[in-house]
Amino acid sequence: MRFRLPHTIRSRTILVLFCAFLLSHTISLAIYEINRDKTILLTEATDLADRIIGVVELARSFPERDRQRILAAAETQFLTMFPEPGNLDDERCRDNDFSRRVTESLGGAFADVPGFHAQVCLRRLKPAPLLARNEPLHGFDVLVAVNFPDNERAVFHAILPEGESLIHDAVLVYLLFSGLIALLLAGYLIRKTVAPLGQLAKAADSIGTNIDTPPLPENGPAEVAAAARAFNRMQQRLARLVHGQTEMLAAISHDLRSAVTRLQLRAELLQDRQEREGLQRVVDDMKTMIQSVLDFARGLDPSETPRRIDLSALAESLCDDLKEEGYPVQFRSGGADCVTECRPVALRRSLHNIIDNAIKYGSEAKVSVEGTAESIRIVVEDCGPGIPMHELEAVLQPFYRLEKSRNSKTGGVGLGLSIAGNTVQAHGGELSLENINGGGLRVQMQLSRC
Ligand SMILES: Nc1ncnc2c1ncn2[C@@H]1O[C@H](COP(=O)(O)OP(=O)(O)O)[C@@H](O)[C@H]1O
Ligand SMILES: [Mg+2]
Predict the structure, then answer these.
(1) Residue range 266-276: average pLDDT?
(2) Roughly how many angstroms between the first and final C-alpha of the chain, as a whole number?
(3) Among 60, 142, 389, 436, who pairs with 440 as Cys (CB 3.0-4.6 Å)?
(4) Domain ranges in the chain with CATH number 1.10.287
(5) What class of enzyme is it (predicted)?
C-alpha cells in the first residue's frame, strides 16, 4: 500500500512537526542513556577501587594471622571476598574502560608496593531490557584479584547494580504529554497561519459569481498578505473592465433605442403599406435585440439591493401573469419554505427568459419550485425537441442560438439563457440544462439559501 500524505497544509505541517519531535527526542534520549551509563560505570569503578584500597590497607596494617578475619569483617552486600582467585577466565577479563580505571586507581594507591599486581574481570549479569523496571539483579559483577609480592592475594567480588533506565513509564507519559501540548499549540498556530489561504480560495471562487465581492483583509503572514494584496488588485482591475464593458454596452443600446424609435416614427409615415409593414417588422426585431442587450447589461448590474422574498411566490405570480396573457404555463409548488435573500427583479427577469424559451421552443412551460435545507430549486420543463447534447453548454454563451435565422416567432438574439446564467451565478447558484427522456428540456435554477 502506498503511503499517502495528508491532504491539507495544516495536517502535513503537523505530521512534519510530529516526526521532528519524535526523532529529536529519541536521538537525545539515546545519547543521554549511552553517556550516562558510561559515566556511572566509571564512577562506580573509582568507588569500588577506593573501597578495595580501604579494606586492603586496613588488613595489611594487622599482623598476617588476623588478615583473613579483617577481610571477612569488611564484607558487605555488594563486596564479598574470596581467599582464592577462582576462575578468572579470559573472556571476562578483557581490557575495558572500567577495568582500566580500577587497575589505575589500585596501582596508584599501591605504587610503593613492589611487585603489586591487580586483575579486573567485568561481566554483564543480564542484558538490560529496554524498559527496565524493578529488577535488582541486572547490572555487572566484578572480580578484582589483588596480588602482593609476598604471595598474599585476595579476590574481591562486587555486584554493580545498573542505574534505572531513563526510559520508564513516567518519562514516556511526560514525553507524550509535552508532545501533545506542543502539537496542539502548533496546530492552533498553523490553523491561524493558513486560514487566509482558505479565504483566498473562497474569494477567488466568489468573484466568478460576483465581481464586486468585498476585498480580502490584507493581514496575516507576509507572503499571505502579499497574495491577498495582489488578489485585491486583480479583482479591482477585473471589476473595472467588466463594469466598463457593461456600461458601454448599455450606453450603445440606449442610444440605439432612441434611433430605432425615430426610425419607427418615420416608418409610420410611409405611404406604401407593404413597405411600411416590412420596415416595422425590422424595427420590432431591432427593438427586441436592443431590449435583450439592455437586460443583459442590467443582469450584470449589482445595483439592485438584495431582499428576503419567497421564491415560490415570485415564480407563481410570474406564471399567473403569463397565464392571464394566454400563455400555456403550469405552476406547481413543492410546499417547502422557499424564503431567501436575493435580487428579485433580476431573478424574475431570468425566470421569464427561461419560461419564454419553454413556450417558444417547447410549446408549453411546467414550472415547479422545491426547497431543501441548503438550496432552492426552480425547474422549468417543456415538451419540445430539447437541445443537442453537444450544444447544451454553448447555448449559455451570449448570442448563441440554435435557430440561426431569426423570425418573428422565435425572434431572440441569444441572450436569454446567458442573462439567466449570470444572474443565478451572482446568487451563488448554478443554472443547468438537461434533455428529458422522451422529449423536452429541463432547465434548473439551483440557488443556495442565505
Ligand atoms: N426550451 C428550449 N428548447 C429548445 N431549445 C431551446 C430552449 N431554450 C433555449 N433553446 C435554444 O437555446 C438558444 C439560446 O436561448 P436564449 O439564450 O434564450 O436565446 P433566444 O431565446 O434569444 O434565442 C435558443 O436560440 C434555442 O435555440
Ligand atoms: Mg430566449
Answers:
(1) 90
(2) 44
(3) 436
(4) 204-302
(5) transferase
Neighbours of 7 (CB within 10 A): 8
Q: Which atom of ligand 1 is found nearest the CA of 292?
A: 22
**Secondary structure element (H or E) that encloses residue 428, with its range:** none
**Short-list 405, 398, 448, 392, CA closest to 420:** 398
pLDDT of residue 126: 59
From the list 338, 343, 351, 274, the residue with the least C-alpha distance to 306 is 343
Report which protein residue has its CA nearest ligand 1's atom 24: 401
Looking at domain 204-302, its CATH architecture is Orthogonal Bundle (1.10)
415 CA to centre of ligand 1 in angstroms: 9
Contact 308, 344 (CB under 8 A): no
Written as one letter, the residue type at 135 is E
pLDDT at 88 over 60: no
Indicate the SS3 state at residue 94: coil
Cα-to-centroid distance, 383 and ligand 2 (Å):
16
What are the grid coordinates assigned to 199, written together? 479565504
Give dist(CA 94, CA 122) in Å, integer. 8
Q: In the chain, list all ranges with CATH 3.30.565.10.
A: 304-448
For 97-215, list the strands marked E by DSSP. 117-124, 139-147, 153-161
The fold of 304-448 is Heat Shock Protein 90 (3.30.565)
For 193, residues 6+ apart whose C-beta sits below 8 A from its C-beta are 220, 221, 224
Which element (helix H / strand E) includes 187? helix 169-207
**For residue 289, pLDDT beyond 70:** yes
Ligand 1 contact via 429 beta carbon (within 6 Å): no
* Ligand 1 atom index nearest CA of 400: 14
* Cell 596480588 found at: 147
pLDDT band per the 50, 70, 90 thresholds, residue 83: very low
What does the DSSP assignment read for 274-319? HHHHHHHHHHHHHHHHHHHHHHHHHHT-TTSPPEEEEHHHHHHHHH
